[in-house]
């Protein structure tokens, strides 16, 4: 992305491999720097980062905050629940307000797919999509790819299985685009009610049976069952769901013996993943995903900080 004209990070779809790889390489450097305990507090000194979260978040919001602070930016978390948004201010009024504050980087999470793109057309800041509806969650896919690449040494040629609630998952969509762009084989596994019919067009293989879908997989991602986005009951019960689709030792036995176990969080233990697998340090890289989240967000902020309209000479 550096050196290119990119102003925002709204989606992985449409990003070319060199752009993705340069972000991963920069993030890799930040991962090493973070482990060494060093910081780069001068890089974004004087820049303002606003975290605007219209939906709940723990990992994503905190890691953007930490990433901004590690690079020296002034970080503001706008608590939407107490802001004017709840008094009926429209998204565009919010954009005008943020512009007046001369914000450089705007991190947005919103329940509506496309809301960050709308904001990006109206604000001078560089906009980063931190998850919009069921559309995309680009930094999650970048951190997942970084985690896989660090463990496996590559992405190309690997088989990655994404399991569960594909229909409501922006994480799945961003991962499908990114892993596909870097040459991985992507499988999606889940009940027909949770796999959109058109998903095959994105170049994935579709499975409705865990044993078949996990066979030979190098990495397995379990997804949260997103009941808050379901308009009607698409699964019988949590117990039943776990029996057929929950990732446990028995089902994981079909994957490669060294397959990575991943989850974007927050986890519903005993629903889409068994605690014994999630907490197994020999298999699970879930904590490393969180660690890589900070490094990836540092790389994204570093790359985009210079592209805000008011700084682009
Ligand atoms: N944290 C991820 C997201 O915001 C996954 C999830 O919520 O299940 O999409």
Describe the structure.
Strand 5, helix 6 (170-181) and strand 6 (185-189) form a beta-alpha-beta unit. Helix 2 (59-70) packs across helix 11 and helix 3 (91-100) packs across helix 4 (115-122). The chain has 313 residues and is α/β, with parallel strands linked by helices. 37% of the residues lie in helices and 14% in strands. The mean pLDDT is 93. It starts with 16 loop residues before the first helix and ends in a 9-residue tail after the last helix. It contains eleven helices and nine strands. The protein binds aspartic acid. Residues 131, 137, 170-171, 224, 226, 264-265 line the site of aspartic acid.
Order of helices and strands: HEHEHEHEHEHEEHEHHEHH
Return the structural class. Answer: alpha/beta
Strand content: 5-15%
Number of strands: 9
Shape: globular
Cα(first) to Cα(last) distance is: 18 Å
CA radius of gyration is 19 Å
Task: Give the helix proportion (percent range).
Answer: 25-40%
Ions, cofactors and other bound molecules:
aspartic acid
Low-confidence spans: none
Q: Number of helix segments?
A: 11
Give the strand line-up of the largest sheet: 7-6-5-8-9
Largest sheet: 5 strands, parallel
Average pLDDT reading: 93
């Amino acid at each position: 992305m550096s050196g290119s004209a990119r102003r925002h990070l709204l989606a992985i779809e449409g990003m070319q491999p060199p752009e993705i790889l340069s972000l991963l390489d920069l993030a890799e450097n930040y991962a090493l720097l973070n482990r060494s305990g060093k910081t780069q507090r001068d890089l974004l000194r004087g820049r303002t980062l606003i975290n605007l979260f219209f939906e709940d978040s723990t990992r994503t919001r905190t890691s953007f905050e930490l990433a901004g602070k590690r690079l020296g930016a002034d970080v503001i978390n706008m608590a939407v629940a107490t802001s004017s948004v709840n008094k009926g201010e429209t998204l565009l009024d919010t954009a005008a307000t943020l512009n007046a504050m001369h914000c450089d980087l705007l991190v947005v999470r919103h329940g509506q797919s496309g809301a960050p793109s709308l904001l990006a057309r109206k604000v001078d800041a560089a906009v980063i999509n931190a998850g919009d509806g069921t559309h995309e969650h680009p930094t999650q896919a970048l951190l997942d790819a970084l985690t896989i690449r660090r463990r496996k040494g590559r992405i190309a040629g690997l088989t990655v299985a994404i399991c569960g609630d594909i229909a409501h998952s922006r994480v799945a969509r961003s991962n499908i685009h990114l892993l596909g762009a870097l040459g991985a084989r992507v499988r999606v596994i889940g009940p027909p009610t949770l796999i959109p019919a058109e998903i095959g067009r994105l170049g994935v293989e579709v499975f409705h049976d865990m044993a078949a879908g996990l066979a030979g997989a190098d990495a397995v991602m379990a997804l949260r069952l997103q009941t808050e986005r379901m308009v009607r009951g698409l699964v019988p019960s949590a117990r039943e769901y776990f029996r057929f689709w929950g990732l446990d030792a028995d089902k994981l036995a079909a994957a490669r013996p060294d397959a990575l176990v991943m989850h974007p969080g927050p986890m519903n233990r005993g629903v889409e993943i068994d605690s014994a697998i999630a907490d197994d340090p020999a298999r699970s890289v879930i904590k490393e995903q969180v660690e890589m989240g900070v490094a990836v967000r540092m790389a994204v902020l570093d790359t985009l900080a210079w592209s805000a309209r008011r700084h682009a000479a």
